[in-house]
Amino acid sequence: MTTRTDSTTALHQLATELRDAVGSVVVGKPEQVRLAVTVLLAGGHLLVEDVPGVGKTVLAKTLARAMDSQVNRIQFTPDMLPSDVTGVAIYNQRTQEFEFQPGPVFANIVIGDEINRASPKTQSALLECMEERQVSVDGTTHRLPDPFAVFATQNPSEMEGTYPLPEAQRDRFMARMSMGYPDRDAELSMLEHRDRVDPLAALQPVVTAAQVRAMIAQVHDVFVAPSLKRYVVDLARATREHEAVRVGVSPRATLHLVRAAKASAAIAGRGYVVPDDIRGLLVPVFAHRLVIGTRGGRQLGSHDEATRVLAQIAEQVPAPTEA
After folding, report:
1. What angle do CA 225, 133, 85 make, to 5 degrees?
2. Sequence spans of domains, the chain
């Protein structure tokens, strides 16, 4: 009979193999790799924002390659239509019936490249997919594969040819992160070893879709003490009451923070959540959802300002001393 301890150890080992596989390609970014794996095992979606050329798409492609599962990539462009994402019903003259042709969203891992280059209408085509894991076309509902995760990249909003993500869509991403520039050693290593060899091409899958599905189910069983649940709710309420915040985080955000904390604990080899799991994920899970208000006629809507607000909240809201 398999005990919970044995299952936790097995999950920890598989998660470590997955992190190591992704880290072998995405060099010098251990925190970003860990967050990506955390979001995957929490059953969430990840938004990666940064300037072009720093490895956003490589991270998403590497994580997808490390899984032996169906992967589709969508290159978002301004002229895309919602049906280009979800699929469309086409009339079959032979059968004289409409047949649904699935779009690229029907995959275990969907890489949404430069998602904010598509119009808000096209971006919104993902809302039902991301929340309900299904697509509705002409009154018929089509279930998406399980597991299903969207790993989207976007360029900074001030860059030419970008559209802001709808607030409802931002809220469906469990976490947001930036890649940042590599450090000096990592960039030198890229010049020395990747001029002729593509490490992504040589990467072999280390987990299957069925294993990831089982790992996600196991993460749900990680224990969260009532005091920690109250702590998460207090953090969320503090964002709604902060003077610099016009719109605080939603109840969905509290659910996402708890799920991500569970995954973080499981990756660390624990069957229970501790306060550090929650504090470490506060900014990635909450910051992109905050709508910062105006003070003195000055707009404070940057990610840096949201991070500053959350740092204040983390200091003001006491964490439980005993989980």
Report:
1. 140
2. 1-221, 222-323
Strand (E) positions, 172-275? 175-177, 207-208, 245-247
Long-range contacts of the stretch 291-297 (C-beta < 8 A, 24+): 291/167, 291/245, 291/246, 291/247, 292/244, 292/245, 292/246, 293/244, 293/245, 293/246, 294/246, 295/243, 295/244
Amino acid at 44: G
N- to C-terminal Cα distance for the chain? 28
* Of the candidates 125, 149, 155, the residue with the CA atom closest to the CA atom of residue 137: 125
pTM assigned to the model: 0.89
CATH superfamily of 1-221: P-loop containing nucleotide triphosphate hydrolases (3.40.50.300)
- The CA-based angle 214-135-114, given to 5 degrees, is 85
Tokens 């929340």, located at residue = 131
* Per-residue pLDDT tens over the stretch 245-286: 888 899 999 999 999 999 999 999 999 999 999 999 999 999
Rg (CA), the chain: 20
Which of 42, 37, 44 has the alpha carbon at shortest distance from 17? Answer: 37
- 222-323 architecture in CATH? Orthogonal Bundle (1.10)
